[in-house]
Every structure is written in C-alpha cells, then in structure tokens.
Design goal:
The chain is mostly helical. It contains 10 helices and no strands. The longest helix has 38 residues.
C-alpha cells in the first residue's frame, strides 16, 4: 500500500475517533442536564442519581463526607465497574475500564448542570411534574445520542450487561433488577441517615423516570437518523467546523 494512502487512512481513523467522542461528550452533557432537572423536580430523581443524591444530602447534614452529587457519582461508578470485574472475572475486557473515564465525565457534567439549574425551584405539583417530564425527555435524547455514538457504555449500563452475561438473563429483565436494586439501596440509605423514606429523592418522579425514559427513547430514536449522519461526517481538519455548520444550517433552515 502506498505510504501516503496509509497515512490518510490513519488520519481518517483518528478524526473519526475524536469526532465520535466529541459527540459522546455532548451526549453526556445532555443526559446530565436531564438528570439535574429530575433532581430539581423535588419529587424523586432519576434512578442513576438516587444514591448520589441521598449521600449528598447526608453530607449536607454532616452525616457523611460532604461531597457533591457528581463526586458521589464518581464513587458509585467506580464501585459499579469493580462489581463488573467481580461478576465477569476473566470475561471482563480491560477496554471496559474506560467506563471510569465516561463515569468521571458524567459526574463532572452533573455537577455543572446542578449549578446551572440551581435557580430552579419547584414548589407546586404542576411545576414539579412538568420539570420531571422535561428532565426525562432531555435524558431520553441524551441516551439516544449516547447509544448512537457506539462507544464504551456507562457504568450503570455496564453492570446490567455484566449481569446478563453472567446469568443469561434477558437484558430488559436484568435492567429492571439493577434499577430496582439501586433505588432500594437509596431508600435504605435514607432510613440509615434520616430515619425515614426520602420522598424527594425516591418518589413518584423516580417511578415516572423508570417508565417514561425508556418509552421516550423508543419514540425519539427513530427520529435521530440525522445524528447518525452527523456522526459519520468525514470532513478534513480545516473544513471540519465549516462542514458541520453548513450541515446544521441546511438541515434546520
């Protein structure tokens, strides 16, 4: 093979990898914005944030280390990856350690979006439900984007995959078990730290998120082909931003 052609192929793969993960970062930002809205609804956060949320509240009450919800998310993701290693053992692929990086980015953006939504207060039931549904919709869009990026899974999804591989259980059933376990742990932590069920952490909003997000992803995903086309754009380095801007303009004008 001609050396120049080989270099062009390597350059193309590098550009593709970088672009794929830029869009993945965008997807994670969107997901965490949705999670932050669910937390701000004050009627129950999304499943993945229930444990970090209750631990953060315990920290604010002086009953646990005073970490942010994003920092507790780092810790939880680290534990989830460790649990995957224990479950899969030799079948755990080292590339899946990259889940720790994705989990770190998720936690960082969650803190950013909690700050961005800090002025949002929900006192009336209609505003609480509205913010919760909005958060679920935004989260569903982010998940659809993340799936299409086709990179390493989030630790919360990774543990479900590990359970599926280890037991032969269908993925949807394993997902229900994992989500229910996370919520149950959050409820138990609420009793340990506060002596009762923390309804603003695990409440009707959590149930809405568990049911609504999956349905929203199924509804939204068929309309996301434009994101797949965006993912596979192959402009050169100099034309990258110009090509992206032209595509977005032509698609939405």
């Amino acid at each position: 093979m001609d050396l120049s052609l080989k270099r062009t192929g390597v350059k193309e793969k590098v550009v593709s990898f970088i672009w794929q993960h830029i869009l993945l970062v965008v997807s994670i930002f969107i997901m965490t914005f949705g999670v932050a809205l669910c937390v701000r609804s004050n009627i129950g956060s999304s499943v993945i944030s229930t444990i970090p949320f209750v631990m953060t509240l315990a920290g604010e009450a002086g009953k646990s280390p005073g970490y942010t919800i994003g920092e507790y998310t780092y810790i939880m993701n680290f534990l989830l990856v460790g649990l995957q290693i224990l479950i899969l053992r030799r079948r755990f692929h080292l590339i899946q350690l990259c889940q720790l990086i994705i989990g770190f980015v998720f936690g960082f953006f969650l803190d950013v979006n909690m700050w961005l939504t800090s002025a949002l207060t929900c006192d009336a039931l209609y505003s609480q439900v509205g913010v919760q549904l909005a958060g679920c919709c935004v989260l569903a869009v982010g998940i659809s984007f993340e799936i299409r990026c086709g990179s390493v899974t989030m630790p919360g999804e990774g543990i479900t995959v590990a359970v599926t591989k280890a037991t032969g259980m269908p993925f949807p059933k394993a997902k229900i078990i994992v989500d229910t376990s996370l919520v149950a742990i959050a409820v138990i932590l609420g009793y340990i730290f506060f002596g009762g069920w923390q309804w603003h952490v695990v409440g009707i909003g959590t149930l809405i998120a568990m049911v609504f997000v999956g349905a929203a992803v199924k509804f939204i995903d068929p309309h996301m082909e434009w994101f797949s086309r965006l993912l596979y754009i192959r402009p050169g380095f100099r034309r990258y931003i110009y090509g992206l801007a032209r595509y977005i303009y032509s698609h939405f004008k």
